[in-house]
From TrEMBL:
Enzyme class: transferase
Organism: Frisingicoccus caecimuris
Cofactor(s) required, per the database record: Mg(2+); Mn(2+)
Enzyme Commission number, as recorded: 2.7.1.180
Full protein name: FAD:protein FMN transferase
UniProt-listed Pfam families: ApbE
InterPro entries: ApbE, ApbE-like_sf
Length: 355
């Protein structure tokens, strides 16, 4: 078994790790080949996190070629949409306020749509504010109210328009970033590069976003553990058994610091400029599109239980919301076919959301 997790303790004030998986994946990692089956695994660093790909098939050479294609795709996505890359589409937009997004239109379009459907709680133009906090970075701090209010003047997804493949704005200070959707998009694109004739099954894990397809050689599906939001890195409150589905979790424990007894996490509410105070510890979304899962888990966390569940229903996805009272709400009974719940001992209670 292997837990696909990454962590790098920071300064004493940092109580979370920079790269920490929200969910753990249990898969065989032994590169053992027989006449019938083989499996290969590779880890690359992209979109600000470690992305691990594990593939199953019959021909090791073909599997390794697919790993190479995945790695190249992840690198291409990173180069195209990361605001940290100088020549990315996002960076060009942030400097020139207009850019042709070419083949990447899908991710920009989805970011703007989820922003609209969440009433601006999720907003891909939040970089002006998130840069002030820099939570998980080298210069994390609590900015002043004046700084936040000034930065919020340049946070407005409605000031950006996407038409005929061109993203543009009249606000010369608007800054775009796709961090809350980029990992899901990256593994979605990488999965599209896989030759399914040669690869019978696989799992791509980008920290809190995971994509699965097919079944392992023994016929089993993939087991994905849901992290205990108040436990250690290896603690869980349940296991999801999945295939041909993606799963993404957003939580207040991924990157944060504490000051004067207050936890400041990295999921910012674009409407206030502060870390979301929604009464939730984590939100998990399960669907067949990892890009959508990534965006909705963030949006749902910011919106809170009731508005967040309404958003999940709008998109027709499965969701699990964990609140500060350790209630674990699910929005559809079909989740019970996927979830083995283990949280009772730690005081968690599994409940249907009844609105």
């Amino acid at each position: 078994m292997i837990d696909i997790h990454s962590g790098n303790p920071g300064k004493t004030i940092i109580l979370a790790v920079f790269l920490v998986s929200v969910i753990m994946v249990f898969i065989s990692c032994n590169k053992v080949s027989t006449e019938e089956t083989a499996d290969v695994q590779d880890t690359a660093f992209s979109m600000g996190t470690a992305i691990t790909s594990t593939l199953y098939g019959r021909n090791r050479e073909e599997l390794e070629e697919n790993l190479d294609r995945i790695s190249q795709c992840l690198n291409d996505v990173d180069q195209d949409i990361s605001w940290r890359e100088e020549d990315s589409l996002v960076s060009v937009f942030n400097r020139q306020h207009e850019v042709s997004v070419n083949d990447r239109e899908e991710v920009f379009q989805m970011a703007l749509k989820v922003a609209q459907d969440s009433g601006g709680a999720f907003d891909p133009t939040v970089l002006s504010v998130s840069g002030l906090w820099d939570i998980g970075g080298e210069n994390q701090r609590h900015p002043s109210q004046a700084e936040i209010e000034d930065a919020l003047k340049n946070v407005d997804y409605q000031a950006a328009t996407l038409s005929d493949g061109t993203l543009k704005t009249d606000n010369m200070h608007l800054l775009f970033e796709l961090g809350a959707i980029g990992k899901g998009y990256a593994i979605e694109q990488a999965a599209a590069e896989i030759d399914r004739d040669e690869v019978s099954a696989g799992i791509l894990s980008a920290g809190s976003s995971i994509l699965t397809f097919g079944t392992k050689p023994d016929g089993s599906k993939f087991r994905v553990a849901l992290r205990d939001p108040r436990g250690g890195q290896d603690d869980r409150i349940g296991i999801m058994t999945l295939t041909d589905l993606s799963i993404s979790t957003s939580g207040d424990y991924e990157r944060y610091f504490e000051e004067d007894g207050v936890r400041y996490h990295h999921i910012l509410d674009a409407r206030t400029g502060y870390p979301a105070d929604s009464g939730l510890m984590s939100v998990t979304v399960i669907a067949d599109n990892s890009t959508l899962c990534d965006a909705l888990s963030t949006a749902g966390f910011i919106l809170g239980l009731d508005e967040g569940m309404d958003l999940m229903d709008k998109y027709g996805v499965l969701a699990i919301f964990v609140d500060n009272q350790r209630n674990v709400y699910y929005n559809n009974e079909s989740i019970l076919d996927l979830l083995s719940f283990e949280g009772e001992a730690e005081g968690y209670a599994l409940k249907p959301y009844e609105g």
